[in-house]
Amino acid sequence: MTAKTVRLTMAQALVRYLCNQFTEIDGTRVPLFAGVFGIFGHGNVSCLSEALEQVQDQLPTWRGQNEQSMALAAIGFAKAKRRRQIMIAATSIGPGAANMVTAAGTAMANRLPVLLIAGDTFANRLPDPVLQQVEQFGDPTITVNDAFKPVVRYWDRITLPEQIITSLPQAVATMLDPADCGPAFIGLAQDTQERAFDYPEVFFEPKLWRIPRSRPDRDALAEAAALLKSAKRPLIISGGGVRYSLAGEALADFAARRGIPVVETIAGKGALTHDHPVHAGPIGIVGSTSANQLAREADVILAIGTRLQDFTTGSWTAFSHEARFISLNAARFDAVKHRALSVVGDAREGLAELDVALDDWRATPGLMTYARQLFAEWNAVLDEHQRPTNAAVPSYAQVIGVMNRVARPNDTLIGAAGGTPGEITKGWRVKDANTFDCEFGFSCMGYEIAAGWGCAMAQEGPGGTGGTPIVMLGDGTYMMMNSDIYSAALTGHKMIVVVCDNGGYAVINRLQQAKGVPGFNNLLTDCRVKNRDNPIHVDFVKHAEAMGAQARHADSLADLEEALIWAQGNDGVTVISIVSDAWKWVPGDADWDVGVPEVSTFETVRAARAAQEKIRQAQRVGV
């Protein structure tokens, strides 16, 4: 009997397949692909857009302003959905595709699913070179799209219409695999998009995808349990994998019953609320004194769902050289790092099985009390730095204190590059779980506003908090990518954007000067300009209003609080600007290994080099 077929163009078949993939969120069956961010050009407008137009009520297409920011919005969406639902970013060939490479790197570093679809050149090569084709003289198969290969988990170029039958399921499976999760890229040759093929109808049958939960090896679990039982001062590091495994409650219960304090990475912040009894603060370079003190004293560290990035480990100076690590991670690549006892498996299921293996063991009595005392001291430090003063210009910490006070429990704070990550990781007190998004895996400037747009979409459906994204960023990042203020205003999605105007790239200026280099090309006052007597200042309020947002400038912390309350009552996008101090920061006590010149004419650089050598002498030897 001949299998039934349906004749479709490749682009039509691709879209029909995507429309028939489903997932479950909180017990509700929803489309796996929630929508498309699209900018059309000659490489996708006549075929892919034709296919998308016919399903716009089922797979909505949202018009972006910049290809990179579209993909960043998709990342913000995926984070808010905790990798349970995916957005697509579609672009034409050439510069449009190349614009998305930075966003692909952001998704790759953060292990987040995004489907990137770009037009490509002609498979038959007859019109070559086509508009926007960058020719590689020695290899005619290479196009701009090959630039995605280092920054995606799955890459394919479709040159025959039937190739999507095997390619698309692999792309989806990769994006949903907790061990391999990351972006997938599909390049569509222009002449292949148009070609019709008799596709088997079974290819389009609805499919329900479930996130697999791998169970750890029993011997590895037994070894981990034995090591943990030997601990005098154990510590748990909660990473982003805890959030994506939906393991927050399981972790909180495990830690409470076993008497082990929990500290969090930047990606892991928000799995627990700030005031949860087992929570002892963020760890590392942008962490708390409480978490870092516990790390220094810990003899066994259970690291869950974290790749132990240098900002978490203080470039491997934050722990005793004798401390032992147990790494529970869905990704083998992460679990075996740094000589850890690796337990490869899902965070939630791994915790449950480790709990059984521990029998009635509990940590040393008094450890949790000690952790709470340290954390109370840290909270007192935060209170001191966030308290309003008579200073003419408020600090980041004071701004965060006001924002935190006005934010509703289900509102999500979003930040990324610059001085914001350190200040919000230290100072934002999470009220409800999973309401914090600081992109610091790639530290991508420009993520914030785009992610706010994507997050706003995610909060509307199943699994969303129903709250408002509150974006916090500096003036430097705002200037780099702000067009999604217009995107969100255009589409009607609500978010609040707080712009801290500290006159340039303040935190990198701080690092520059800390390493002995005079202020140079970071703060606007240190940049090369022709007329220093008449500097140009951006009016962020007028700029935001020109893009359809409501906007207000705050002259003080009291003004900021009033403006935030006003913004909560607005629909659409509200932008609030406030001048902030470029020199005041919440203190930290972890080191960071960065390159410092071995020779220099600056005495300050030579001193910084000597200090850097001491940091390197303190590093643990990892693998």
TrEMBL record:
PANTHER family: 3D-(3,5_4)-TRIHYDROXYCYCLOHEXANE-1,2-DIONE HYDROLASE, THIAMINE PYROPHOSPHATE ENZYMES
Keywords: Hydrolase, Thiamine pyrophosphate
Organism expressing this protein natively: Paracoccus lutimaris
InterPro entries for the chain: DHS-like_NAD/FAD-binding_dom, Myo_inos_IolD, THDP-binding, Thiamin_PyroP_enz_cen_dom, Thiamin_PyroP_enz_TPP-bd_dom, TPP_enz, TPP_enzyme_TPP-bd
Domain Thiamine pyrophosphate enzyme central: 221-354
Superkingdom in the source lineage: Bacteria
GO biological process, one term: isoleucine biosynthetic process
GO molecular function, one term: hydrolase activity, acting on acid carbon-carbon bonds, in ketonic substances
Protein name, entry field: 3D-(3,5/4)-trihydroxycyclohexane-1,2-dione hydrolase
Thiamine pyrophosphate enzyme N-terminal TPP-binding domain boundaries: 36-133
GO cellular component: acetolactate synthase complex
Gene3D superfamilies with a match to the protein in the record: 3.40.50.970, TPP-binding domain
Residue span(s) of domain Thiamine pyrophosphate enzyme TPP-binding: 425-578
